[in-house]
Amino acid sequence: xxxxxxxxxxxxxxxxxxxxxxxxxxxxxxxxxxxxxxxxxxxxxxxxxxxxxxxxxxxxxxxxxxxxxxxxxxxxxxxxxxxxxxxxxxxxxxxxxxxxxxxxxxxxxxxxxxxxxxxxxxxxxxxxxxxxxxxxxxxxxxxxxxxxxxxxxxxxxxxxxxxxxxxxxxxxxxxxxxxxxxxxxxxxxxxxxxxxxxxxxxxxxxxxxxxxxxxxxxxxxxxxxxxxxxxxxxxxxxxxxxxxxxxxxxxxxxxxxxxxxxxxxxxxxxxxxxxxxxxxxxxxxxxxxxxxxxxxxxxxxxxxxxxxxxxxxxxxxxxxxxxxxxxx
Length: 328
Hints:
Number of helices: 11
Number of domains: 2
Distance between the termini: 26 Å
CATH superfamily of the largest domain: Thiolase/Chalcone synthase
Number of strands: 13
Strand order of the largest sheet: 1-7-6-4-5
Shape: globular
Oligomer: single chain
């Protein structure tokens, strides 16, 4: 019997500190109406103290406690993030230490907002080979650490958060069934954090030019995201002979409500089949998809056909077709 990688649990964590659109009105020239109409975001969470690994630790500890699993049983940890604690060691390395996963090896995966689906597809293959039995996949970002609060076009969008899932072997045909992942590095100029890497290491000049913050060409990113996220979602349906009525849930990256709607429309799905929580968390980058699964977990049923779809900086994009493996 073919072994697949099933999601056997999910858990999320967001900081307690809620920042509303009205709070941002006091910082930058914007308004609640402007933000809501263009993005769908009403509030987001900000981590006041700590790092990405701290939020990831909360998510992973919650996950393992919920499933009554000893951290020593975990074989591998894949952390999707663009806001690592350090350039090195990896946040996965730090997380394994903080969470007691002493027998696991791990690594960080950097694909911006597509990070979680990249990491999910990667982790699944370690299960499918039979090499590992328990793989933790984490999406986490402390976007407030790289947001420019003088740039009203970007600071209104993002929030902080983390989500984690456990992957285990399955022989019932459940779990990760298929994925399509894509990238186009020519898009890097439109959505990028220019400073801090080997191209532009930190200097007085890079700091003065505010190069260590997220820079986005909104119109270009929107155009690419609407087209590619919708296309890849339709493509994975066609590849797996799924009609609209066969798909129980779309789990779209929570970047912009208009992009979410465009993807759902392309797939022929009504709004009630689409997971949406952008209004309360904003764009938490790699954490958006697991946070959606966490929020909607009690509505999911064993055997549900789920399509996860994302688009991120790079550009990166893709979709995962997943059969849900348990009833909550």
